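Recap from last week: sequence in, structure out.
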Amino acid sequence: MPGFALLFYRVLLWTLLAGLLTGCGRVPPPPGDTGELVVLTLNGPTTYFLDADDEAMGFEHDLVTAFAHQQGWTVRFVVVDSLDSLHARLARGEAHMAAAALTPSIEKIGGVRIGPVYEHLRQWLVCGAQVLPLPRSTAELDKLRVEVVDGGAGSQWAQALRPPALGRGIRRMEGATPGELLERVSHGLSDCTVSDERNLAIERNYLPGLQAAFEVAERQPLAWLVSPRLESGFARLLQRFFGKAEAEGLVAQLRDRYFGHVSRLGEVDVLNILRLRTERLPALKTHFYLAERQTGIDWRLLAALAYQESQWDTQARSFTSVRGIMMLTERTAEHLGVVDRTDPRESILGGARYLLQLRDALPEAVAEPDRTWLALAAYNIGSGHVEDAMRLARKQGKDPHQWKDLKEVLPLLSNPRIAAGLPHGYARGGEARALTENVRIYYDILQRYEPLQSQGASWLKRLLKP
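Predicted structure tokens:
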């Protein structure tokens, strides 16, 4: 009987422990012991999200993955639903670190350590189009419905307001994300919220009417947070990684990859593509789907290029006699076998094949997504002029295989003194840069609202991967 009782109590103890571990989360061993880094994050356009093939990507995702790769570790991302949950789970040691565009608050996170600061972003009070006149100071907020993410920079700002009564009138939204609150503001469900400048720039491309009222604080630091259970050696690994990442240009490359294009469009541009997406695009989708199947290029990228070229007008024509929805020259159309440039099916298929040819003609050293951006620039000015830009970039000590460097030298192609020394001469390089950056934004917009047609398109699987 004593043996049975001992066995019973052991089973009961393990059952209770299993319940506790299930309810509170398991504490992972140090990554140096297992080779796995466990990271808490939030879903969002500036942090971590899934692409059309359900593969993870995002600025924080790529940066963390690069850090883990440098140490020889794999990464397991755990997506949580709120900042409060992230802070609490990290404080309990349920992950090794957290990466989610975090503005650390010592009071909030207690024993959790702060990693190296890798960015500083301005925080804005953002109001909807219905708020007129725009408030220019906190003294003008008393009659407005202001919502902030609980535990975020906006919540910290509200707590510090004087008089304190003003801050208590601001609603702290538990479990909300910055993007959700900006959407509520855009739809008039609340008047204002607080957002960092980067998130605002991205969401403005999808949500019309957002207005930056005033800065609520000085530039706030972004940093990763580290579990209190890890030894100080982990913090030294982070320091070394960020030092190397900044020196080698990795951080700058990722910034450009995810955010280098997001601030180009004005509100009129956003409203126009959202309107024409319902008025003109439906009749053209069949042709874009066919072009995707034939070339492996995401149809939404082709549609974004067509919108930039013609605003999806099948009869479009320029003063230089380029015609059709993809604005093909007569010479290019003849090369591609396009008989009628105003036939949307012919034009879209021809434009897709042409973009594929331009992409395949680039040097093998040009990786995605830069390969796509360079091909778009070549679509505008031709491969020869892009080669000239690459020569200029190399001469200036820049990387000719990266879009972030090449777009800096493209406008120089229109300088007569510089163009005279180039094999292909003068070109409107600034126009090619503008086209490419605009297409990147239009593609982002279409990815948000339109599903991928052919799952596993060969080009898309490589697109936007570090």
